Amino acid sequence: MYAFERDIIEFMKMTHGREGGEIIKYVMKHPGATDEEISNKLKMRENIIRKVLYDVYAWNGVELQKKRMSEGRNYEFRWKINYAAFYKHIIAYYNDEIERLKEGLTFLESVDFYTCGKPHHPVMTIDEALDYEFKCPLCGEILHNVDMSGEKENIMKKIESIEEKIQKIERHYELFKKKKIR
């Protein structure tokens, strides 16, 4: 198994749980597998398998071949992985996460926060503190400015970690493409 395939399975476990990872792993190893075949091998209900695969199909992460069974009304669905679409989707997912974190960081840097310092008492923006005349709404004590540098540092570490993950996935995908082309 290639490193990029492991990246896909890890991503699927994160977004769709253990079952999602198992389903995608099976489809990787058995391109053209049917819902029924996957269900029998993984001991999962077909509706769970279809739910995961249709979700991934919505952004082209898997390709679907639909074939009518004999003269009946039933169809057979065969699935295979679209690696390029998976790559684009995973990178976009992590870039969106970085953007959300950067927006949160910008908010933390642009606003002052206040609290009385007691556990489980609210931390408020300056606007909220003004509404309460800088007194805690729960205990009535005076609100003090809160140092948010720890939270800012945590967010910056998360951003850095995700950026490193993106670089790793990009390297794995480039290696995967080179090996698959041969």
Structure notes:
The radius of gyration is 24 Å and the shape is elongated. The protein has six helices and six strands. The longest helix has 33 residues, at 149-181. A three-stranded antiparallel beta sheet has the order 1-3-2. The protein is an alpha+beta fold and 182 residues long. Strand 2 (62-68) and strand 3 (75-81) form a beta hairpin.
Specify the structural class.
Answer: alpha+beta
Rg is 24 Å
Which strand order spans the largest sheet, edge to edge or round the barrel?
Answer: 1-3-2
> How would you sum up the major sheet?
3 strands, antiparallel
Keywords for this entry:
single chain, 182 residues, alpha+beta, Arc Repressor Mutant, subunit A, 2 domains, three-stranded antiparallel beta sheet, 6 helices, 6 strands, 63% helix
Topology:
Elements: H1 3-29, E1 33-34, H2 35-42, H3 46-57, E2 62-68, E3 75-81, H4 83-110, E4 113-115, E5 124-125, H5 126-131, E6 144-145, H6 149-181
Antiparallel strand pairs: 1-3, 2-3, 4-5, 4-6
